[in-house]
Amino acid sequence: MNAPNRYELYVLDDGEKPVEIIEDTKIPNAATIKIVKQDHTLGNMLRAQLLSMPQILFAGYKVPHPLHPHFIIKIQTDGTMTPQAVLEQACTKLIGTMSSLENKFKREFSFKDVEGTVGAGGATAATDDPYGGSGMGGTGGAWPGGRDYLDF
Amino acid sequence: MQGHDDLEPTVHIRELKKDKVNFVLKNVDLAFANSLRRVMMADIPTVAIDMVEIEINTTVLPDEFIAHRLGMVPLASSNCDEAIRNTRDCTCLAGCDSCSIMLVLNVACHDHHTMDVTSHHLDVVPPGTPGTWGDGEEQEHDAGEELSKRGERFGHPVGKDEPGTPPVLLCKIRKGQELKLRCVAKKGIAKEHAKWSPCSAVSFEYDPYNKLRHTTHWFESDERGEWPLSENAKEEEPPRDDEPFDFNAQPSQFYFEVETDGSLGPQEVVMKGLAELQTKLANLILGLKTQPELDILTGGEQQPNGNNADGWGAGGGGGGGWGAASGNGGGWGGSASPTRGGAATSAWGATSPHSSGGATSTWGGGANAGWGSPEQQSNGWNV
Ligand SMILES: [Zn+2]
């Protein structure tokens, strides 16, 4: 009855900022970045990517409370880049990895015929070519080719 | 953490069936692979029955019991992104053809045999049928293109009209009993309710020999005898008996099997999963870039059109648009958070079972608690 709508876990409220940066006053080149309406899916992936980058001295994330739909990620750099610039770069690199993976998946899927039951029609008639053909083009395109983040 | 940065990620599909795909993902982090798993399970929209209006129920099951079962029936949801809106984003008041699908069920038993009421008895009311969404109320508001993006079977129970596919049993009735109801199916994701998950199971394995010691095998007398190897062990070198433990080693090869409930095909699930992850990252980049001009922002979803007309895709990391990042450090100070205090001081770190997998959240699902890697935590941070 009193529970908030479940979609508030992942939909920003009206006017809510998706990101909040809190500069660290005691540690040089460090910031804590609060990312709202996101969870471990994004947080852990970013943390791992950041740690693989040479500019990073520290990167860690936590979900402070399981009922609060945000996580915070703390970043300290070596000073060659600001924490948020390095976070942006981490996102870019991850998107690059994913779009290359997307292409590889597409290739692999095109090599594989669905074994058995292709023609069964019925409920999955529209999925015969779930990724090609009708309407799916939007997400199918390779990242570098023509699509950029503004399309999202 | 480093190690496979230099190598391109690769994927090999071992098996593709109508409702499942089995693949091996190589040269990515554990965190990356786990995020893919999580996003496929919990972030891909489908349609499922969300409201049920029961007119007659003289079966042995109470209304809510039946309503719950109806919610779990998988409905064909191909191209859900474009084919249906979220009701919360729709201009209608309580439901319309752009954001909802009406299904009806009307079954009565007239003979002396027990009769099964199944998902095959659910009929979709075709969009545009007058009176579906209230009397005479025209759906003048922007109807959108959703209807034209729908496949023929969109919203129909999976397996209906597909000979040989067993239906979902909802209830059994005997002579004189009747069930008559109307359902409204809506779009949603599994973070809201698991009925919207396109996946019935996602298996995720790495390091079949446990070389990394991310888990401990309890055994009576003989570890190898009591812990049979998984099939995936054939894909890797067995450890030599005298092999020393490499505590710097990182997993880089992941075995997935994505099984869907039929609402989406496995290919659509995997590709949508990757696309969804990119969307999350792209939105984060946007949020970071628009940070200095906080006042301009009006909610996350409208952002993409306003600022940042500069090409991001072209830069490929570092060039062009990125230059701004070093200059706007000043923007930070202004954004001190008033809301952060309470939560951030929780004692979370001390007791947390959260491992790097993050898989212990409600949505981690299944047996993955054991999969999280025992990476070190420092003072509550997953580092
Ligand atoms: Zn509507």
Automatic annotation (TrEMBL), chain A:
<dbReference type="GO" id="GO:0003899">
    <property type="term" value="F:DNA-directed RNA polymerase activity"/>
</dbReference>
<dbReference type="InterPro" id="IPR009025">
    <property type="entry name" value="RBP11-like_dimer"/>
</dbReference>
<keyword id="KW-0804">Transcription</keyword>
<dbReference type="Pfam" id="PF13656">
    <property type="entry name" value="RNA_pol_L_2"/>
</dbReference>
<comment type="similarity">
    <text>Belongs to the archaeal Rpo11/eukaryotic RPB11/RPC19 RNA polymerase subunit family.</text>
</comment>
<feature type="domain" description="DNA-directed RNA polymerase RBP11-like dimerisation">
    <location>
        <begin position="30"/>
        <end position="103"/>
    </location>
</feature>
<dbReference type="InterPro" id="IPR036603">
    <property type="entry name" value="RBP11-like"/>
</dbReference>
<protein>
    <submittedName>
        <fullName>DNA-directed RNA polymerase</fullName>
    </submittedName>
</protein>
<dbReference type="InterPro" id="IPR037685">
    <property type="entry name" value="RBP11"/>
</dbReference>
<dbReference type="GO" id="GO:0046983">
    <property type="term" value="F:protein dimerization activity"/>
</dbReference>
<dbReference type="GO" id="GO:0005665">
    <property type="term" value="C:RNA polymerase II, core complex"/>
</dbReference>
<keyword id="KW-0240">DNA-directed RNA polymerase</keyword>
<keyword id="KW-0539">Nucleus</keyword>
<dbReference type="GO" id="GO:0006366">
    <property type="term" value="P:transcription by RNA polymerase II"/>
</dbReference>
<dbReference type="InterPro" id="IPR022905">
    <property type="entry name" value="Rpo11-like"/>
</dbReference>
UniProtKB/TrEMBL annotation, chain B:
<feature type="compositionally biased region" description="Polar residues">
    <location>
        <begin position="374"/>
        <end position="383"/>
    </location>
</feature>
<dbReference type="InterPro" id="IPR011263">
    <property type="entry name" value="DNA-dir_RNA_pol_RpoA/D/Rpb3"/>
</dbReference>
<dbReference type="InterPro" id="IPR036643">
    <property type="entry name" value="RNApol_insert_sf"/>
</dbReference>
<dbReference type="GO" id="GO:0006366">
    <property type="term" value="P:transcription by RNA polymerase II"/>
</dbReference>
<dbReference type="InterPro" id="IPR001514">
    <property type="entry name" value="DNA-dir_RNA_pol_30-40kDasu_CS"/>
</dbReference>
<dbReference type="Pfam" id="PF01000">
    <property type="entry name" value="RNA_pol_A_bac"/>
</dbReference>
<dbReference type="InterPro" id="IPR050518">
    <property type="entry name" value="Rpo3/RPB3_RNA_Pol_subunit"/>
</dbReference>
<feature type="region of interest" description="Disordered">
    <location>
        <begin position="121"/>
        <end position="167"/>
    </location>
</feature>
<feature type="region of interest" description="Disordered">
    <location>
        <begin position="296"/>
        <end position="383"/>
    </location>
</feature>
<comment type="similarity">
    <text>Belongs to the archaeal Rpo3/eukaryotic RPB3 RNA polymerase subunit family.</text>
</comment>
<feature type="compositionally biased region" description="Basic and acidic residues">
    <location>
        <begin position="141"/>
        <end position="163"/>
    </location>
</feature>
<dbReference type="GO" id="GO:0003899">
    <property type="term" value="F:DNA-directed RNA polymerase activity"/>
</dbReference>
<feature type="compositionally biased region" description="Gly residues">
    <location>
        <begin position="312"/>
        <end position="334"/>
    </location>
</feature>
<dbReference type="InterPro" id="IPR022842">
    <property type="entry name" value="RNAP_Rpo3/Rpb3/RPAC1"/>
</dbReference>
<dbReference type="GO" id="GO:0003677">
    <property type="term" value="F:DNA binding"/>
</dbReference>
<dbReference type="GO" id="GO:0005665">
    <property type="term" value="C:RNA polymerase II, core complex"/>
</dbReference>
<feature type="domain" description="DNA-directed RNA polymerase RpoA/D/Rpb3-type">
    <location>
        <begin position="20"/>
        <end position="287"/>
    </location>
</feature>
<dbReference type="InterPro" id="IPR011262">
    <property type="entry name" value="DNA-dir_RNA_pol_insert"/>
</dbReference>
<keyword id="KW-0804">Transcription</keyword>
<dbReference type="GO" id="GO:0046983">
    <property type="term" value="F:protein dimerization activity"/>
</dbReference>
<protein>
    <submittedName>
        <fullName>DNA-directed RNA polymerase</fullName>
    </submittedName>
</protein>
<dbReference type="Pfam" id="PF01193">
    <property type="entry name" value="RNA_pol_L"/>
</dbReference>
